[in-house]
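Consider the following assembly input.
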Amino acid sequence: MEPVRAVPPPGRPAPPRAGSPSAALELARLLREAGYAPQQIQERLATGDQLLARSPELPSYLRRLGDADEPAVLLRLFLLGVPVARERVDQLVGAELRARLAEAGLLVEDSEAVHGAARLVPHDELLIASDPAGAAEGHADHVPGVHRPSVALAHLTVRREGERALDLCTGNGIQAILLAAHAERVVATDVNERALGYAAFNAALNGAANVETRAGSFFEPVEGERFDLVVANPPYVVSPESAYLFRDGGMSGDEVSEHVVRAAPAALAPGGFACVLISWGLDPDDPAERPRSWLEGSGCDAFLLHTSTDDPVETATVWNRDLLDRPEAYAAALDRWLAYYRKLGIEQLGYACLVLRKRSDGSDGWLEARQLPRAALRPAGRHVRTLFETHDRLAELGADRSLLDRRLRIVEDAVVTQDTRFTEGSWRAGDLTLRLENGLPFSAELDSPTARMIRALDGSMTLREALAAAVESDDRPTGLALARRMLEIGFLELCE
Ligand SMILES: C[S@@+](CC[C@H](N)C(=O)[O-])C[C@H]1O[C@@H](n2cnc3c(N)ncnc32)[C@H](O)[C@@H]1O
């Protein structure tokens, strides 16, 4: 019978190693040639881009794959974590690729079979190695693969060409590798040597030659240095445990988030950005209160891009999924986590990407919070940067009066759609929706006056003229406030 869960390799192998940059690139090339590439893998497993392969899915994946060709063997070893008989590997994996995999420490054998020593998962065009599935328990230094928060952070990062970048808490190195594509130089830090091993290997495998790894806690390895961009996906989970370095920061409550946010400004060059994933005990009456307090006197402007608010049960459930197939341990963990939140008086937990921008003159900055829609995120760094730029321009303009005399235009990414409904025997026009096709996935329902105003805002007239042409005089103050809001969010832009 086919296995129902991944089998960790014997002897807990060390992270793979590159040998030399050219050997790593050659390995990546051979893997792709053998069908180990994002699109082929998705087609082969009939899956979307979320290759989680949890235990319940494994039997179907294995049946879909078979074991009669090279991609099937490689996917079993490196994606699904299932051992393969030695003869099968010898028969089906080309001698050159087999030798390269062994040289990189990606294969381990026991008396029965060959095991993948690491997980190797495609992320867009990249291949990212991490610790094998099902091998976390009992190992605080376990290095996980790319997860949803990693992807969210990558999408929200404000990127500029040629900059000096820092990836704090690099883990498997995914952020550093993405930074390497546009930054001149990237420093990737982690307190976990095992993570740094994976980060270095992944950088080499993906041809990122400008990534330097450094060991140490948070900002210690870069003390006194300044960067144009800092990205951080720290162990921000508010958790009572210290089981895993990737999740439990070893501080109380939301202190990891607080520590990183308070320390980041000192590592930023003037005009530099920091994009930091955070979680905090949230007060529903003022959700941004804690992050705002962490930034007092920081000399930074900030957007709090609020991704979700969870209750304690939801948070405890999400972060203990690895225990799902052990019901008693799972229930005990939920009780422990819930008791912890009760003790701290936390009734809601906020999750966000906090984007900071260092002011050039060190003066006090502002913080604006934006609730992001539940819709899936997509690359939005340019949009995030526009939020800052628009905020600056509106501050320069000052009163709404000046805005009235500016020409505004709907952005090219904006699309208006209308539902039509068949009711009471005929088709009727329904709600109008405005949404953005790129960047942050904001959308808004439009009433008729707002829709008319938007149509008038094609850049040819000032806001005052558009309001006069499209909106009844009583509704104009509302129209002005709406236009300002749409500008702040990025539906509208200033023409000059
Ligand atoms: C959530 S993982 C981030 C992985 C990766 N950057 C990503 O975006 O997917 C958090 C990382 O923080 C590291 N870490 C935990 N405590 C740390 C500390 N005090 N200083 C630096 N890194 C730390 C962990 O080892 C882990 O690799």
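The first strand starts at residue 84 and ends at 85. Ask yourself how this observation constrains the way the partners meet.
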